[in-house]
Every structure is written in C-alpha cells, then in structure tokens.
Amino acid sequence: MAKKSFAELIKSPGMPVLVDFYADWCGPCKTMNPVVEKLAQDFSGKLKVIKINVDKNQAAAQQYRVQGVPTFMLFRNGQVVWKQAGAVPGHQLTQIIQQHIT
C-alpha cells in the first residue's frame, strides 16, 4: 500500500483529524505522547490522530507554519480549525476535540 500524502491524511471525511507535529529530541513532545495516545483511544472511531515528525516531514511543517514542537492542529475536511504550539493539558485537548466532533 502506498504511503498517503499529508493532504490525503487530513481529509478524513466526516471525522476530525488531530495532527501532532513533534520531534524525537523534544522533551515536551515526549511528555505529550501518553496524552495523545489516550485521546486516540478515547475518541476511537470519532477522531483520527496522526503524528508527524517535523525532522522527516519538513514540507508539511513548513506548509502549516509549524515553528515550534509540539504543535497540535485539528483539521476538519482538510481545513485547520484549531492550532496550538506547546504542550497542551489533556483536558483542554479533550474539550477542543469534543467541540469539533459531530
């Protein structure tokens, strides 16, 4: 199966997509890993979660002006509906996701 492009991945019809832009060397990114994994479980079937390593996917990071890691973006039908740089408390991420789930 061919790798999907970033544009294809974020156009999940009817389902919001949370993108976690991270880097292996980033401490706060590692702190957010369990939070992001829990969100993926909690919203299974309602939310798609994608992790993008900015060192390996510089084009996607540049396209969306990711200037620091971690940066979280929520896409709906391929459009950015929310973006935040830095670590985000799990309950805050949950509230934001709930606002965008139909």
Structural class: alpha+beta
Helix share, percent: 25-40%
Order of SSEs, N→C?
HEHEHEEH
Number of strand segments: 4
Mean pLDDT: 92
What share of the residues does DSSP label as strand, in percent? 15-25%
> How do the strands of the widest beta sheet line up side by side?
2-1-3-4
Low-pLDDT segments, ≥5 res? none
Protein model, in words:
This protein is an alpha+beta fold. The protein has 4 helices and 4 strands, in the order αβαβαββα. The chain has helices spanning 6-10, 27-42, 58-63, 90-100; strands spanning 17-22, 48-53, 71-76, 79-85. The protein starts with 5 loop residues before the first helix and ends with a helix. The mean pLDDT is 92. It comes from Pontibacter aquaedesilientis. InterPro entries: Thioredoxin, Thioredoxin-like_sf, Thioredoxin_CS, Thioredoxin_domain.
Q: What descriptive keywords fit this protein?
A:
about 100 residues; transport; Thioredoxin; four-stranded mixed beta sheet; Thioredoxin_domain; redox-active center
List the helices and strands and how they pair.
Elements: H1 6-10, E1 17-22, H2 27-42, E2 48-53, H3 58-63, E3 71-76, E4 79-85, H4 90-100
Parallel strand pairs: 1-2
Antiparallel strand pairs: 1-3, 3-4
Protein name: Thioredoxin
Pfam families: Thioredoxin
Family: Belongs to the thioredoxin family.
